Amino acid sequence: MYYDDDTIIFLNGKWIYAREAKTGLYKQSFHYGNGVFEGIRAYATHEGHCKILKAREHFERLQYSAEQMYMDLPYSVDEMVQWAYALLAKNNLQDAYIRPLVFTEENMGLQPENKTNLFMCAWNWGQYFSDLGVNLVTSEFTRPDPRSCRVEAKVTGHYTNSILALNAAKKQGYDEALLLDQEGFVAEASGANFFFQKGDVIFTAPRGNILPGITRSIVFDLCRENGYTLRETRFKPEDVYDADGAFLTGTAAEISAVSSLDGIAFKRLWKDTFGYRLQQQFMHYVRAA
Description:
alpha+beta, D-amino Acid Aminotransferase, Chain A, domain 1, 7-stranded antiparallel beta sheet, 7 helices, 16 strands, globular
């Protein structure tokens, strides 16, 4: 799915075939989860060009995440954006998913390892969730406590939490997990931010226990443009049960309909909600030149 014999990747300033890439087994990133990454989408525009969605914002966050984990990323945002476009061109990709990963040198201790490697790859990746809507379940797992780690950094090790929550949800017959914070308030899904609508208001969790997504910020902009009232506030799962509708946002998820939470369906059809309108506007936005 991710590469074939002709796939070219970027590794530490060089372009090589994915099949030829090598790395050591003693990396701190491999043993202790001290790596940072981004998920970025590129789209073919209506004019036939390729556009990386919010490229600068993604690479700025990659730099921020690296700094939070005491990792030295010796490249500018402009350089990384340029390499991302070159990566797409070398692999003849337009509608694609781009994965930059910053990982450490060999270090079997827990002291920070500031020397890093930059790997970047891309592949075709279509719609993440079904058009039928996502069936969510409140997870038995909570999001990491912000007093225990840098929750606003996109760190590889943080995603063990997501893997556990999603696996548990799948075993219960659901599509995705909705995780709470340590006080029982809704945080986010395993890999996406959560929004719901009640009447003329859209609600979402505030920063603090979530990864504030870049697609989330686009939704904020679209809400302002449409004159929708958006509230960042704390809420519990039971506050969502009688909602008109709900949706997930993220680079992979884009804007995806949620059809139920804990087996309780929402009041309105997806096409009758603000989320549906935002979804249509978002897809136009990403393909505009």
